[in-house]
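User: Run a structure prediction on this.
Assistant: Running it now.
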Amino acid sequence: MSRSMLPPLNALRAFEATARLGGVGRAAQDLHVTHGAVSRQLKLLEDHLGLALFQRAGRGLRLTAAGTRLQAACSEAFSGIEDCVRETEEQRLLGIEVICRPTWEDIQQAHNEAGSQTSAG
């Protein structure tokens, strides 16, 4: 499947949250959007894929076989992305700490060097 054939990311996020949390309302709270917004994203995703991901029973939802497979793939993918972002952020913070935290001796040395250059001129 080419990247252009992938479903919209927001639809996948809404689906993953709904499947993980067991309901549209809980997914909406988790994603900080309305119930209707999540419902629209689920419909968009099902239309895009051309198949049902949930069996609707009254107010409840149950994953279909296709929904179960997609949930596993989405959970793994989002977990991998979260891990990568966390590692990248940790590396970035470590780099900033090393670069941006001079010791008091470094500050004094820089100050002394600046003073000696000024008095020499």
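The first strand starts at residue 54 and ends at 57.
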